[in-house]
Prior knowledge:
By secondary structure, the chain is mostly beta strands. It has a domain at 45-138: Lipocalin. It contains two helices and eight strands, in the order H-E-H-E-E-E-E-E-E-E. The protein has helices at 3-17, 58-61, and strands at 45-55, 64-71, 75-81, 90-96, 102-107, 110-117, 120-126, 131-138. The strands form two sheets. Strands 2-1-8-7-6-5 form a six-stranded antiparallel beta sheet, with no helix packed on it.
Amino acid sequence: MTPRSAGLVAMGICGFVLGCTGTRQAPPQSTAAASPPARNVPIDGSYNGVAQLTSGAATSCGTQDIVTFQVKNRAFHYVINQPQVPWQPQRPFEVVIAPDGSFQAQAGPAYIRGQVSQGHMQGQIVGDACGYQFEADNSGTF
């Protein structure tokens, strides 16, 4: 190999690896499609699901109950029925859902709290004698 041809080979390698400016070039971008963004699901609607007993006696609290939450303007009203508590057979909650999807409301020692995201609601309802974990899905408008 002559000095001239060696220089041309070196220039070719330099051009391939470093580019014309003497710095490395970024590898070509992948043309693979990016995953689509999560769809924005409205918070309002009718959420239907199941509440499962987490604390209290199964004989007086039950073990599993159907729950429905009617959310309108990012708020809902819920009443926990507790016939096993004669001094407070019902505890009503006025619940407002925060911009991040979280919610919490209290009535005396009882409370409801949870999270709403992408058409799914989950949380806890704790009354005077019984506690439940619930999950519900938005079935649309009412």
